[in-house]
Design brief:
By secondary structure, this protein is an alpha/beta fold. It folds into two domains: about 100 residues, CofD-like domain (Helicase, Ruva Protein, domain 3, Orthogonal Bundle); about 140 residues, CofD-like domains (Rossmann fold, 3-Layer(aba) Sandwich), CATH 3.40.50.10680. It is about 40% helix and about 20% strand. It contains eleven helices and 13 strands. A four-stranded parallel beta sheet has the order 8-9-12-13, covered by helices on one side. Strands 6-5-7 form a three-stranded antiparallel beta sheet. It has a two-stranded parallel sheet with strand order 1-4. The longest helix has 22 residues. The protein is globular.
Length: about 290
């Protein structure tokens, strides 16, 4: 299993290199994630933030004490010349993670949003402003000249690859920054394995986050079909929630219906098997 993480929302804070998506995936795979917050480490302590607040420092972006260690060590190693992918791989090894977690690129790509309050960096929009501004445009600075991790490109070209799964996340903030890296998008399009996406929309609503809000602000229909159309040139199949069965005929590609709302680990495991079975059926049908 290889997991590709978005680095478009990486940023520097207090002089530290912060990689929120990478770290969320890493902590989850290591069994260290905080399921209540949905980010950071579980059983976290907040001595650093309390001391920072007492000194009048900025506290809009919370860094737990254990999480802070990740950022300090990552920053040290990046400044010593190591690549983000190398540092990430070593962290995963030390945390006992069997899956291979790779950043979409070792180059700098940053998601920026043009809003009714002007241009905002991703974390300013998402955390500091809590997604309140109206979004008018989303860009991925640096993506056009970025290059995907060579190991990722090799995996996509491997004839033994079983499936490429585009997970049910915000298309603008989590998926499209990855697809904006030219050689990565091209490699997905060329992959012999089926490319299957899972809708992040259920019954016209997002499970969490600002996906539906952003779609509406950008003039898009808030629907599972509208998300699929954004990836249409890459997809071999799409997985919809049963609540959106009526949208299947709009897509012109094979569609699988499933219960896509996952609340427990068992839900996630069962759904992953369902998605892989869908990909296997597609591969068999086209063999």
């Amino acid at each position: 299993l290889m997991v590709v993480a978005n680095t478009g929302d990486d940023f520097e804070h207090f002089g530290l290199a912060i990689s929120p998506d990478l770290d969320t995936v890493m902590y989850t795979l290591a069994g260290l994630d905080d399921p209540q917050r949905g980010w950071g480490r579980r059983n976290e302590t907040w001595t650093f933030m309390a001391a920072l607040e007492a000194l009048g420092g900025e506290t809009w972006f919370a860094l737990g004490d254990g999480d802070l260690a990740t950022h300090v060590e990552r920053t040290r190693r990046l400044r010593a010349g190591e690549a983000l992918s190398t540092v990430t791989a070593d962290f995963c090894r030390r945390l006992g993670i069997a899956a291979r977690l790779v950043p979409m690129t070792d180059d700098i790509v940053r998601t920026r949003l043009r809003t009714d309050e002007g241009w905002l960096d991703f974390q300013d929009y998402f955390v500091r402003r809590r997604c309140a501004p109206r979004v008018l445009e989303v860009i991925y600075d640096g993506a056009a000249t970025a290059h995907a991790h060579p190991g990722l490109l090799a995996a996509l070209g491997d004839p033994r690859l079983r499936a490429v799964v585009i997970c049910p996340s915000n298309p603008f903030l989590s998926i499209e920054p990855i697809l904006a890296v030219p050689d990565l998008r091209e490699a997905i399009a060329r992959a012999a394995a089926p490319v299957v996406a899972v809708s992040p929309i259920i019954g016209g609503r997002a499970v969490k986050g600002p996906t539906a809000k952003m779609m509406s602000e950008l003039g898009l229909e808030v629907s599972a079909a509208a998300v699929a159309r954004r990836y249409r040139d890459l997809l071999d199949a799409y997985v919809l929630d049963g609540a959106d069965a009526a949208e299947a005929e709009k897509l012109g590609i094979p569609v699988t219906l499933a219960h896509t709302l996952m609340t427990t680990l068992a839900d996630r495991e069962n759904f992953a098997q369902h998605v892989l079975a869908s990909a296997d059926a597609l591969a068999k049908a086209t063999a």
